[in-house]
């Protein structure tokens, strides 16, 4: 199951079991959904989210209060690192809002999402939600999932063979360069958010743009009015670098290195979500640090399920997959990064082989 470039195939035992049970109790997913619903795991958790938002909000206020109190000091870099982690938690909150895990209504979710995303961290809620919805519909599909579209990095050997320019250069060594490149991901999110304002699919671009401009203006004004230029630039880099690396450490283990889909390959919903996702083992600290996305299989099956319920749903999902003979992949956090990096190294083989052939021919 961890072979990076393998296509998603439903094991014969899973297909036969599915055929035997579909008529009696609905689809494999429908039967699982009934179990999950009966356990109350789709119910909202307002108390959890109220406490979570208060704590993250307090951390945000505390970070900027420390920034104001320290003034022109190189200790500001510690504040920058702390705020990078806080921004990561705000991004996770925006993620849960986008999936309507907090509020059932669309308007409340979008309003809160724009406040947290656009105003809080300078990331377009509308752009990210559109992109993330496409990812959930077709996870790890090379033509349909924007998260595995070739950009600076390539995610399959076919993409590597077609790469030109900078992606071709980076692709040769992308496993080594992956974490250094994540230091730029925070900047990339801000730039992509501004660019998205001109796209026709972006809803309410004026509102989103105004909130992004307010965030950017206030952020840069605070840095360059309160700090000397050198310290301000160092704060800016450390803050955005920690933010980017933190997000990458959260999201990379979820699908990278898992089987991919191509063309018309389209298993049923349950298998499409389970076979392309990876869970990360851990305790409550892991749940908090990764925002519950360490239970990626359960999240993809039930995107609107409140994050604190995912751990309990895991037992039902794992048992259900075992009954169907559907592989359920779960590993430790460090091992998940190893698998993702192994995948990046593997898909770069055609580029390195081409270099070796060129040297031999020369």
UniProtKB/TrEMBL annotation:
Family matches, as Pfam families: FA_desaturase
Transmembrane segments: 49-67, 73-94, 205-227, 233-252
Region (Disordered): 1-24
UniProt superkingdom: Bacteria
Domain called Fatty acid desaturase: residue spans: 73-331
Keyword line: Membrane, Oxidoreductase, Transmembrane, Transmembrane helix
Keyword presence, Nuclease: no
EC number: 1.14.19.-
Transmembrane found in the keyword field: yes
Gene Ontology MF annotations: oxidoreductase activity
Protein name per its UniProtKB record: Acyl-CoA desaturase
Organism annotation: Streptomyces hazeniae
């Amino acid at each position: 199951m961890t072979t990076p470039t393998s296509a998603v195939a439903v094991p014969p035992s899973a297909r036969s079991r599915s055929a035997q049970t579909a008529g009696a109790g609905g689809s494999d997913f429908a039967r699982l959904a009934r179990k999950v619903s009966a356990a109350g795991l789709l119910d909202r958790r307002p108390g959890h989210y109220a406490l979570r938002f208060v704590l993250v909000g307090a951390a945000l206020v505390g970070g900027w209060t420390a920034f104001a109190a320290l003034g022109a000091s190189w200790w500001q870099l510690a504040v920058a690192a702390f705020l990078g982690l806080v921004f990561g938690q705000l991004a996770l909150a925006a993620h849960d809002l986008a999936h309507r895990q907090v509020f059932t209504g669309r308007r409340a979710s979008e309003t809160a999402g724009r406040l947290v995303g656009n105003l809080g961290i300078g990331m377009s809620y509308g752009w990210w939600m559109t992109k993330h919805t496409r990812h959930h519909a077709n996870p790890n599909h090379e033509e349909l999932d924007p998260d595995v579209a070739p950009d600076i990095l390539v995610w399959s050997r076919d993409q590597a063979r077609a790469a030109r320019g900078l992606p071709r250069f980076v692709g040769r060594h992308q496993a080594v360069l992956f974490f250094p490149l994540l230091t730029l991901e925070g900047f990339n999110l801000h730039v992509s958010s501004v660019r998205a304002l001109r796209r026709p699919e972006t809803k309410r671009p004026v509102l989103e743009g105004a909130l992004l401009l307010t965030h950017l203006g206030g952020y840069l004004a605070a840095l360059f009015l309160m700090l000397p230029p050198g310290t301000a630039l160092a704060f800016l880099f450390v803050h955005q670098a920690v933010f980017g690396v933190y997000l990458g450490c959260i999201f990379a283990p979820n699908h990278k290195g898992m089987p991919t889909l191509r063309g018309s390959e389209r298993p049923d919903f349950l298998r499409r979500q389970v076979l392309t996702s990876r869970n990360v083992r851990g305790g409550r600290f892991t749940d908090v640090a990764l925002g519950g996305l360490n239970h990626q299989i359960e999240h993809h099956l039930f995107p609107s399920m409140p994050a604190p319920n995912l751990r309990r749903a895991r037992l039902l999902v794992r048992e259900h997959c075992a009954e169907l003979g559907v592989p359920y992949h779960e590993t430790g956090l460090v091992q998940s990064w190893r698998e993702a990096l192994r995948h990046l190294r593997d898909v770069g083989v055609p580029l390195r082989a081409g270099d070796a052939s060129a040297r031999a021919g020369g």
